[in-house]
Structures are given as structure tokens and as C-alpha cells.
Specification:
Elements lengths: L35 E13 L4 E12 L3 E2 L2 E4 L4 E7 L2 E2 L1 E4 L3 E5 L4 E2 L3 E10 L5 E4 L17 E4 L19 E11 L3 E4 L2 E7 L4 E7 L4 E2 L5 E4 L2 E6 L5 E6 L7 H4 L3 H12 L8 E6 L6 E2 L4 E5 L15 H10 L6 E3 L6 H19 L1 H19 L13 H19 L1 H14 L3 E3 L1 H12 L4 H9 L5 E10 L5 E9 L12 E9 L4 E8 L3 E8 L5 E6 L8 E3 L4 H10 L3 H10 L5 H14 L3 H11 L5 H8 L8 H9 L8 H6 L6 H14 L4 H7 L9 H12 L4 H11 L6 H13 L5 H11 L4 H15 L2 H13 L4 H10 L5
Parallel strand pairs: 1-13, 20-21, 21-23, 24-25, 26-32
Antiparallel strand pairs: 1-2, 2-10, 3-9, 4-8, 5-6, 5-10, 7-8, 11-12, 12-18, 13-16, 13-17, 14-18, 15-16, 19-20, 22-23, 26-27, 27-30, 28-29, 28-31
Helix pairs in contact: 2-3, 2-4, 3-4, 4-5, 4-6, 5-6, 6-7, 7-8, 10-11, 12-13, 13-15, 15-17, 17-18, 17-19, 19-20, 19-21, 20-21, 21-23, 22-23
Length: 812
Amino acid sequence: MKNLVFGFFLLSQFTFAQNTYRSYLKDNTSYREHSLDITKMKVEVSFETEKGLVKGKVTHSFTVIQKNVDSVFFDAPDIKIKSAQLNNQPINYSTNKQGVWVKPAKPLHWDETGTIVFEYEATPKKGIYFIGWNVPENKEKNPWAVRKQIWTQGQGIDNRYWIPMYDDPNDKFITETIVTFDKEYEVLSNGTLLKKVVNKDNTITWNYCMTHQHSGYLLMLGIGKYAIKQTKSGHGVPMHLYYYPEFADRAEPTYRYSEKMIDIFERETGVNFPWESYSQIMVQDFIYGAMENTTATIFGDFFNTDERGFKDRNYIGVNCHELTHQWTGDLITARDGRDTWLQESFATYFPKLFTREVYGADDYNWSRRGEQNAAVEATKKDHYAIRFTGAGTTRVYPKGSGVISMMNYVLGEDQWRRAFASYLQKHAYSNVESNDLVQAIQDKLGKDLSWFFDEWIYRGGEPQYTIKYEDVAMQNGNRSTEISVQQTHQRDEQVGLFKMPIVFEVHYKDGSKDSVMEWIKEETEMVKIANPNKKEIAFVLFDPNSMVMKSVVFKKSFDELKEQILHAAFMLDRYDALIALKEFDTEKKRDLLLDVFKKETFREMKAEVINQLILDSNQKTIDAFKTVFTQYYSSPKLAVIRGLNGNEKNYKDILEKALTDSSYEVLQNALEKLCKVYPVDAKRYLEATKGVDGMNNSLRIKCLELAALNDIDKQKNLQELVNLSSNIWEFRTRNNAFNALKTLNHCDENMIVSLFDAMLSWNARLAGPASEVAQYFSQQTNYKNSFISYYKSKTWSDSQKEILKRQMSFLP
């Protein structure tokens, strides 16, 4: 794309002196000072799994970076320190609730080196998680049955709960992990596996070590029973992909494209994969989607999919995101929380480029549109900037990604890649802040993007435009299209007027067009496009393909929308016209929309046509919509099924065929619809789907729920649902079962046991939904009394009482 940066040097009102920590909101985050540069952290651990006990030794190698150091603090909340040494000699130490102070006999000075060693024990409540060790083994062969595992989650500052350490991202060091564990289990940590030693007590000692420094929150452990797929990227990066051996058929769809991703990101970042190898390990009950630990990503096994589930929810997007972090987050790491966007926004941006390469431009642009919509919606609540610790995930992830896309647009893709590669190379294995990226663009390209960062990173909001145009007769007899742009000035210190390059296109009935690019920066602008040949205007586009994040009011007639939807080059412009057609009645737009439905290949265009015409009983419409059930993508099928409301008879044959669809989600929605509309045939429909579990037992649970609702083996099915709510299953299965039992208004003694167990879970994604279900049942007197009775029958710790009473205030 051509360079769009020309001219802004002339606009002094948009040029700002560089200020590393510029912000228009008071931000309480500050740089954490430290007296020692930790150069290496060596962690040696073993475990008593049933107790959740960590028995460890950690050795910190350091260089002194402050002039005089008479004491040093290490984060170690609730860790029992058994001994401490400085340079192999005992050292005085004291502990408090947050950690441990060590006090050298004489002060340390600049550039001194040494080691501090702690021997310790911990029973952490976070940071490291012991899964399934105190739960009866689930004998059922199912991907979602409980497993015995240990895994860690260090971000943001949780590794401190199982290792006494300096736990802040502004210091980077080599990590080495030595883990002794049962020989029946695989152990994964960061870096290279240096050696495995088989011990006489049926354990193995695993020794991993990094070759480059990284932040302490990125240290990880993953322990469980796994098989490992060994593979390589196109350029030879060793890859180790961990999967459950009894479900080997899931490895390929789960890890699909993993090798290709590395090749694409090496090209897009301009930097080779920066570590010695790359591993991925799935774990149960993970508290997030995934975590980008250096060389070793952990992700929730709810992404462990078979071929059928791949269509509904796969790991590709998250896989891309976490892989990108190996560059943006691990290779370079934000100095503090204000610059989290330098990690998360980029890890959201680069997966879009993978999408463009593998799935095409329409999918890429659809992702951009989703980001733009999310940003505009967030602005309705507040005007927080991306570079603000309270910005929220919408701004740090999708909005930030969309802003990076605009940075690419403003600079041009070749210049953007060149500057970004320079930024990564200059700051490799170190900390960064926003100004480092501004500086990289200046140093590598000679261009000052301070104005852009001020608009989009340091300030909040997005431009709001109102567009009108007029075909005007000129004095010389020619014609001109005059396009009025009104930019709303929100008059907020956090949101100013935006200056951005905008393309304007006038499309004519003869198929030709005229196009100009103008910098729009004032509250009111007029753009004139000459029409010397007096061509008849078909439609006008403001910012074709939606390159600028914004909200727009641009009213158009039916005829203009028709021309735009049939002839605009970019899918997003055709989609916008399609959305605008919602206000017209079916008779006026039916033929046009069916034409669009036939011509368009992108699934979301088809789905939107369906949304607008699904209740149309015209046979042409019905015949057209039935064709989507022979096609690959699910969203048009789901649009048909979910949109039916009294029109099911016209689609009954297709709904019945959908019970064998290649998508679990399509199958489940068709089953629900059929059982609701044709309850007399519910047993036959349920028999057709027997034995199909779906992802996280979702389809199995839905079948049990529908059977019970239709009085088919009701008691048997209720008991199976209660079993699926128990702690021998992973959390998503349990949540699905809780919700089904809520729908059925069934809560027996075993269900109450499961609810109490879930509400006490450290996993908020289990405890929260369980609490909501418990509160629902407690509003019924008989169930409320049962909850109180069970609570009184058990002995609870003070912390458990506090949690339970917070979630069920009626408990005594």
C-alpha cells in the first residue's frame, strides 16, 4: 500500500514532544524499584500431591545494581522459609505475609555478584494447581473425565505463591527447573530438557534450563500423563505437542496449522522464532484460555477437539495468540502494566494475518470489523485509553489490535514491517514501553508517529462521523460530488478530534469510479471530487473496506444500497449495505437479497440474508436457505435453525437431516428445535443422536435434559445429570450439568454436595456459575432448607465458611 504519512509533519498542532509516560488519566501503576538484577533463578521442587504441598529450593544468582544494599525483599506470600543462605553462608531473614527479607551481615555494593538460596515449603492457593489428586478416579473413558495433573499459572504475579522470588516483569533472568516426580508422568518446563535421571524410588528427576533470560511470571510446570507429538516448523524449530494418549485422534485437529503458524509469524515479524524450541500442553480446569509461558504454552483442554468439534470451537485462534507472545510478551516484555497492550494487542493483531493467509481476505476483514465494533461499544461506557491500566480487555485486546492495523495502513505494510522488526531486534530479551515503538519508527523510517500514538494509544474514544453528499453543477458546466464530513467533537480531555487519512470513492452507474484520499482532522470538512463527464452516481463510499476505526452515520436510499451491495469491491462495504437494508420490508428487498445470497461466498453475508428473510414463507426463499445444509460452514445453518419461529414446518425435513450434521452445535440446535416443536417425536430424535457426547459433554447433557423434559426415562436421566455435575468431571461439563438441572428444577442431596464442592473451587469459572445455580434453588423453601441442613452437617474451615456465606447469605 502506498505511503500515507506524507504531510503530517506540516501540521504542528498534531506534533507532540515525546513523553515516555504520557497519559490523560491518573494511573496508579508505577515502576517497581529493585536493588538486585537477578541473572538466574534455579528452582528445585518435589511435591506431596494429596496435600498440595510444594517442597522446594530456589537459588537466585544476582548482580547488585544499587549503590548500597543492606536488605533485600523476595515475594513469598504464605511460604514457609526453612533456611536462607548468601554465598553458601547462613543469612539472617525475617518473613511477613507478603514475603521474606534477607539481611546481609554487611551491605552489598554496586556490581557485586552472588547467590541467595532459600529452602522452603508451601501449600499455595494460587500459582500452582493440583488437579484430581483427592477425587475418586472416573472410570468412564471420556475426554472430559477428571485427570491427575499439576500445572502452573504465573501471570500476573502468581509464581510468588510457590517460589520465593522477585516477581515483577521488569527484571529478566535465566530460569532452570529441576523437578522430581512419579515416573509414570510426563514433566514439562521452560527451555531445553538437559537430562532425565531415573531414581530408585520410582521417580524421575527432570532438568530443564533456558538459554535466554525471560520474566519470572513466564516460568511454568505441566505434569500429567501424556503422549507427545514431535514435529518441526518449516524452518526447523523443534516442536513438542502434548496430548492425551487415549484420545490420539484429537491431536491433529487440536494442533492443526501449528507448524505453519511459526513460519508465517517469522515472516510477518521479520524475526526468527527467538527460542530453542516450542512446546504446548493441554491441562484440565485451566483458569484462562491459555498462557504463553516462554517455549511452553499451557492451554485448557476444553480446546482439545475432535474433527467434528473443530467446526464449532477450535484452538487455532488461541494457538496463534499464544504463539505470537513468544515474540511480543516473552522476547520483549512490557516494563509495567501500563504497556500491556504491547503484548496483548500485538498477540491479537498477528493472528489476523494468519487468518488472512489461511482463510482469505474476507475472514481477515471480518476480524477487523469485530474489533472496531467492540471498541466503539466500549466507548459508550467510558473513554479510557489503551495505555491505561484500567482500560479493560476490550481495549487492550481487540481495540489495540485494530489500532495496529491502522498503524500498518498509515505507514504502508512494507514500512510497518521494517519498523516493527527493528523494534523487536533492538529490544530482544528486554523490557519495553510505548515510546520504544515510537522511537523505532522514527529511527528506522525517519517518520514521527507521535500524533498517532496520542490519538489512539494515550487518548480514548474513536472518531464519530456524519456523512452527506451532493451532486453539484459547476459554473463551467461540469459536475462535482461534494462530500460533507462532520466529525463530532466530544470535548473531553481524554478524547480529541482525530486526524486520519480517509479514502473517498464515487462509483458511477457505468461501473467506473473516482477516488481521492484526504486527511480529515476538523469538525467540518468538505471533500470535492470532480465529475467532468457528468456521470450518473450509483453510490458513494466513505473509507472503503473500513480501514479506520470509527462510528458513521451515512444515510443512503434503497437504490444506492442495491448498487453498493451488488458492486462494491470489498465484503465489508457490501455487508454494510446489507445491514442497512434491514429497515426495508421483505417484499421490496426479497429478490435482491436472494441474489446476494446466491452470489456471496462469505458465510456471514449468507447468515445476515437469512436473518432478514428467515420468516419469509415464499418458496424461493425456503429453497435457497435449505441449500446451506449441504455446505461446510455452520453459521448460516445456525441462522436458519435459530431464526425459525413458527415457520418450522417448512424446514422440518432439513432439521431432521441436521441431526447428522458434521457440527455438534448445528446438531444440538436442530435437536432442541425439533423436540420443542414436535414433542411427540422427541424419543425418535433423541435415539438418532444417542452416543454423541459433543464438546465437554454438552450434547450428551442436552439430550439428557430434553429426555427428562419429555418424561423419557426421567429419573434415570436426572441421576446421570447429577453424576455429571460431580467433581469427577472437568468444570465445563459440571457447569453444563448444573444448568440442565436448573432448567429441570431438580436438586437432590448429591446435587447439593456437588454445588458446595464447586462453590469452594479456586476456579472462578466453576465457582461463579455454581453459586448462581445455588442461589436459584435457594429461593425455593424446600431446597433452601436442604442447603442449610447440609451446611450444618459438615465441618468447614473459617475461609470456607466465609466463601459459602458470601455466596449464600442465608446460611447460619
